[in-house]
């Protein structure tokens, strides 16, 4: 088992947060929210002895994180029994404007997952994951599009990471200034940022004008309506 | 020299883009724009033999990329003669909604810089870099705040990466569907995303109500007004 009974990931030597541990969490619910809101992850791995960091699309299904990107096929070729990775999803929530440069910061939520990613070879699993990836990016989209062919499934490289060693860091709230600095006539506070705000959809130039735009495109919003 | 005469980074075995090379660029101007617009980077390195990927704040000064984050001090302790890194800045510009799942994609701009990051020890350089980091996040801010003390400069860990091995990938434009799929009655196109949209500034609860909010906070916009 990789989680405690209370729904947290186990703290291991790899995931133990040493710097500012008060900002850390291992709670599955909070970590799931970060995975759900994020659109891309950054995947770190070692290639030819050197660290490499690549943005990829992802989806979480049950207790696995799946990644997919243009580099995946090249990665897979260099894999012998899996590829050791660190996958990080970061959401930037705001700028923290303090009275000194030293206390400037950012409000963010970031999750890191460590482990050995394995190629997905089963065609049924691939199909399920690709559907989840499309729906992760834009909910309801998979039911609206042409489904994958066997050749497309074979041509798609997916990596799966079992979520075992996972931790998150979260910063919220106003700046924390040195006590003496609160007397300074400097504006201080936070500037909230939204990180995936949809503009006006742009129809493909080859789309017939009669094609109706579905509501999940027209009303796209990354955050749930309640937030 | 690390650049060609035409203002591009040299293509090396490390930075040569093998997958979809048509999307790659080594042009300094385009790469500088990505560095300028981004707020955070992801830094990959190897710790205890395992890849690690951490979000950090950064600033570019001349031909160096500087990173700063809560992990930096721990990293620096494990460094002997520099730390090999890959630093990636990714800007997500939109969702590419194709007629098949296979051709779904994202529009993005991403730059990767490889090399050995060195700790910054000179206090004058630290001060200059920290000022640039504050102004990178919010232009004009450094002149408005209390300047760093010698103790703060000593307590700040910065890493510097000489920009030599750098490449970028950029995807723009509508989906590229299979020819037969263009006849399908599926809405297709792109959904532009803005990735750092400012909400209403929230004053620090301890800020006197009389403190005026400066225009660089009130009118914060990540992109230049022209775009």
UniProtKB/TrEMBL annotation, chains A, B:
InterPro entries: Pyridox_Oxase-rel, Split_barrel_FMN-bd. Residues 197-227 are annotated as: Disordered. It comes from the Eukaryota. This is Flavin-nucleotide-binding protein.
């Amino acid at each position: 088992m990789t989680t405690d009974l209370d729904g947290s990931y186990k703290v291991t030597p790899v995931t133990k947060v040493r710097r500012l541990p008060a900002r850390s969490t291992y709670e599955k619910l909070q970590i799931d929210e970060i995975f759900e809101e994020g659109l891309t992850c950054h995947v770190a791995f070692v290639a030819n002895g050197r660290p490499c960091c690549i943005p990829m699309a992802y989806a979480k299904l049950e207790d696995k994180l799946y990644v997919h990107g243009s580099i995946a096929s090249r990665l897979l070729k260099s894999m012998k029994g899996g590829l050791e990775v660190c996958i990080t999803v970061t959401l930037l929530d705001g700028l923290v404007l303090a009275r000194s440069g030293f206390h400037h910061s950012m409000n963010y939520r970031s999750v890191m997952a460590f482990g050995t990613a394995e190629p997905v070879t089963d065609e049924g699993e691939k199909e399920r994951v690709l559907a989840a990836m499309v729906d992760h990016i834009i909910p309801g989209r998979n039911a609206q599009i042409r489904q994958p062919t066997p050749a497309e499934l074979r041509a798609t490289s997916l990596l799966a990471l079992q979520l075992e060693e996972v931790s998150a860091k979260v910063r919220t709230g106003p700046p924390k200034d040195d006590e003496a600095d609160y007397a300074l006539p400097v504006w201080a506070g936070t500037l909230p940022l939204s990180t995936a705000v949809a503009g006006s959809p742009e129809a493909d130039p080859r789309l017939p004008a009669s094609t109706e735009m579905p509501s999940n495109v027209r009303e796209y919003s990354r955050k749930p309506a309640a937030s």
